[in-house]
Design a protein that fits this description.
The protein has a single domain, classed as Rhopdopsin 7-helix transmembrane proteins (Up-down Bundle). Helix content is about 75%, strand content about 5%. It contains twelve helices and three strands.
Length: about 325
């Protein structure tokens, strides 16, 4: 036992990320592709935040929550994507122990916070459609702010529950991670101990957040759809359009996370694909889904462009 104690994480000061590909030509192609995607993610989510904060027509609870979702999405991608992009051009793809722990903490903090935020957005739609006369009383600014803060608190607690366990694990080699970022299930495999009980704990911890949020979302949207069936055709059409966008976002975030952290399939190439999907494509699809399908966002974009052009002409 004393031998193991001496060979703690200080023996491993950095980890080696094997990345997504080994071929130089493929890495250059992936570099270009993910650089473009990341620039689209950042610019797309910034555009949504600017439109919502600057346009008085969008100063409503739903768009307040959407602006927060864009903020979260931008950082969800930023935790791992910039490092992945720069690693495509490097031969020595390493990450320090502290950097690795930071990636795990922020990835889980932001992802769990986003899951709770999606539940809050579903609740907002439930109140708007099922209790329209009391909507602005129930979803006032104070309550919306409190619900957003709750999502961050849940994310922080969830991430800390992982970090306090992982940071104390004994790492004595090997130190290669078969992914493009420090992912929790891959790190536990590198610990110099039997990780079976730890894996169960991690799966259960992720399940509490992921499955609970998923069930709450299903309940909210079921109630919405039941109410919509009994309402007018015009109202039902608008509600279904909004809800279908929300449900799409929910599926593209929750399905990959559930199969990585709650019920892992343990297929390396599939885990990599799912990790790329929720860390890159989810933050990219959210702006597209919410703006391309949303008439008010399109009108806000036109007003913003017109105001900008008018100000340039006046200048």
């Amino acid at each position: 036992m004393s031998k193991m104690d001496g060979r703690n994480q200080s023996m491993v000061s950095e980890f080696v990320l094997l990345g997504l590909a080994h071929s130089q030509s493929i890495q250059v192609l992936l570099f270009m592709m993910f650089l473009i995607l990341y620039l689209l993610i950042v610019s797309g989510n910034i555009v949504i935040m600017v439109l919502i904060t600057s346009d008085p027509h969008l100063h409503s609870p739903m768009y307040f929550l959407l602006a927060n979702l864009s903020f979260v999405d931008m950082w969800l991608s930023s935790v791992t994507t910039p490092k992945m992009i720069t690693d495509f051009l490097r031969e020595n793809r390493t990450i320090s122990f502290a950097g690795c722990m930071s990636q795990i903490f922020f990835a889980h903090c932001i992802a769990a916070g986003e899951m709770v935020l999606l539940v809050v957005m579903a609740y907002d739609r439930y109140v708007a459609i099922c209790k329209p006369l009391h909507y602005f009383t129930i979803m006032n600014l104070k309550r919306c702010t409190g619900l957003v803060l709750t999502s961050w608190i849940v994310g922080f607690i969830h991430a800390m529950s992982h970090l306090v366990v992982i940071v104390e694990l004994p790492f004595c080699g090997p130190k290669e991670i078969d992914s493009f970022f420090c992912d929790m299930p891959l790190i536990t495999k590198l610990a110099c101990m039997d990780s079976h009980d730890l894996d169960i704990y991690m799966n259960a911890d992720c399940g509490v957040v992921g499955v609970t949020c998923f069930i709450l979302l299903l309940i909210s949207y079921t109630n919405i759809l039941v109410t919509v069936r009994q309402s007018s055709k015009a109202g039902a059409s608008k509600a279904l359009s909004t809800c279908s966008a929300h449900i799409t976002v929910v599926m593209i975030l929750f399905v990959p996370c559930i199969f990585i952290y709650v019920w892992p399939l343990k297929i390396i190439w599939l885990d990599k694909f799912l990790a790329v999907f929720y860390s890159v494509f989810t933050p990219l699809l959210n702006p597209a889904i919410y703006t391309l399908r949303n008439k008010e966002m399109k009108n806000a974009m036109k007003r913003f462009i017109n105001n900008y052009m008018d100000s340039k002409r006046n200048f």
